[in-house]
Amino acid sequence: MQSILDTLWGLILGLLGVVVAGVAIIEVMARSVLSGLGIQGTAQTVLLFLLLGGLIVASFRIFGRLFAVLLAAAFCVYFLHVVFGFLSGAFIPVQTPAGTTDI
Q: Is the pTM of this model over 0.85?
Protein backbone atom coordinates (compact mmCIF):
# COMPACT_ATOMS: atom_id res chain seq x y z
CA MET A 1 0.00 0.00 0.00
CA GLN A 2 2.82 2.38 0.87
CA SER A 3 4.58 1.70 -2.43
CA ILE A 4 1.40 2.58 -4.36
CA LEU A 5 1.15 5.84 -2.47
CA ASP A 6 4.84 6.58 -3.05
CA THR A 7 4.42 5.86 -6.77
CA LEU A 8 1.44 8.21 -7.05
CA TRP A 9 3.26 11.00 -5.20
CA GLY A 10 6.28 10.40 -7.44
CA LEU A 11 4.08 10.77 -10.52
CA ILE A 12 2.55 13.99 -9.19
CA LEU A 13 5.94 15.48 -8.34
CA GLY A 14 7.41 14.33 -11.65
CA LEU A 15 4.57 15.94 -13.58
CA LEU A 16 4.98 19.11 -11.56
CA GLY A 17 8.71 19.08 -12.34
CA VAL A 18 7.97 18.78 -16.07
CA VAL A 19 5.59 21.75 -15.89
CA VAL A 20 8.12 23.88 -13.98
CA ALA A 21 10.90 22.97 -16.43
CA GLY A 22 8.67 23.88 -19.37
CA VAL A 23 7.79 27.23 -17.81
CA ALA A 24 11.48 27.95 -17.15
CA ILE A 25 12.45 27.15 -20.75
CA ILE A 26 9.68 29.37 -22.14
CA GLU A 27 10.68 32.17 -19.75
CA VAL A 28 14.31 32.07 -20.86
CA MET A 29 13.29 32.10 -24.51
CA ALA A 30 10.87 35.00 -23.93
CA ARG A 31 13.55 36.94 -22.06
CA SER A 32 15.98 36.58 -24.97
CA VAL A 33 13.30 37.61 -27.49
CA LEU A 34 12.37 40.66 -25.42
CA SER A 35 16.03 41.62 -25.06
CA GLY A 36 16.44 41.25 -28.82
CA LEU A 37 13.50 43.61 -29.35
CA GLY A 38 15.12 46.17 -27.03
CA ILE A 39 12.66 45.79 -24.15
CA GLN A 40 14.59 46.00 -20.86
CA GLY A 41 14.05 46.68 -17.17
CA THR A 42 10.62 47.08 -15.64
CA ALA A 43 8.74 46.65 -18.92
CA GLN A 44 10.42 43.30 -19.47
CA THR A 45 9.62 42.23 -15.90
CA VAL A 46 5.95 43.15 -16.30
CA LEU A 47 5.68 41.30 -19.63
CA LEU A 48 7.40 38.23 -18.18
CA PHE A 49 5.10 38.33 -15.16
CA LEU A 50 2.06 38.39 -17.46
CA LEU A 51 3.54 35.52 -19.47
CA LEU A 52 4.09 33.55 -16.26
CA GLY A 53 0.45 34.04 -15.27
CA GLY A 54 -0.67 32.84 -18.69
CA LEU A 55 1.62 29.81 -18.52
CA ILE A 56 0.31 28.86 -15.10
CA VAL A 57 -3.28 29.09 -16.31
CA ALA A 58 -2.43 27.10 -19.46
CA SER A 59 -0.61 24.38 -17.53
CA PHE A 60 -3.56 23.89 -15.19
CA ARG A 61 -5.92 23.82 -18.17
CA ILE A 62 -3.76 21.18 -19.84
CA PHE A 63 -2.64 19.12 -16.83
CA GLY A 64 -5.33 20.05 -14.28
CA ARG A 65 -7.45 16.97 -14.71
CA LEU A 66 -4.42 14.70 -14.56
CA PHE A 67 -3.28 16.41 -11.34
CA ALA A 68 -6.80 16.00 -9.92
CA VAL A 69 -6.98 12.31 -10.83
CA LEU A 70 -3.52 11.58 -9.42
CA LEU A 71 -4.26 13.49 -6.21
CA ALA A 72 -7.64 11.77 -5.80
CA ALA A 73 -5.99 8.38 -6.31
CA ALA A 74 -3.26 9.23 -3.80
CA PHE A 75 -5.80 10.36 -1.20
CA CYS A 76 -7.92 7.22 -1.77
CA VAL A 77 -4.90 4.99 -1.28
CA TYR A 78 -3.91 6.93 1.84
CA PHE A 79 -7.47 6.67 3.17
CA LEU A 80 -7.52 2.91 2.57
CA HIS A 81 -4.13 2.61 4.24
CA VAL A 82 -5.39 4.45 7.32
CA VAL A 83 -8.69 2.54 7.49
CA PHE A 84 -7.26 -0.93 6.93
CA GLY A 85 -4.30 -0.21 9.17
CA PHE A 86 -6.70 0.88 11.92
CA LEU A 87 -9.03 -2.10 11.40
CA SER A 88 -6.20 -4.62 11.44
CA GLY A 89 -4.89 -3.28 14.72
CA ALA A 90 -1.61 -2.25 13.17
CA PHE A 91 0.49 0.04 15.28
CA ILE A 92 2.55 3.00 14.16
CA PRO A 93 6.03 3.07 15.72
CA VAL A 94 6.94 6.50 17.07
CA GLN A 95 10.40 7.53 18.23
CA THR A 96 10.32 9.06 21.71
CA PRO A 97 13.19 10.21 23.93
CA ALA A 98 12.74 7.05 26.02
CA GLY A 99 12.80 4.76 22.96
CA THR A 100 10.37 3.50 20.33
CA THR A 101 6.70 3.38 21.28
CA ASP A 102 3.74 1.96 19.35
CA ILE A 103 0.63 4.07 18.94
A: no
d(C-alpha 93, C-alpha 103), whole Å: 6
d(CA 74, CA 8): 6
Q: Judging by beta carbons within 10 Å of its beta carbon (0-12, 13-18, 19+), is residue 8 exposed, middle or buried?
A: buried
pLDDT of 17 over the 60 cut: yes
In a 3-state reduction of DSSP, which class is residue 39? coil
Radius of gyration (C-alpha) of the chain in whole angstroms? 22
Write 25-28 long-range contacts (CB < 8 A, 24+): 26/51, 26/55, 27/51, 27/52, 27/55
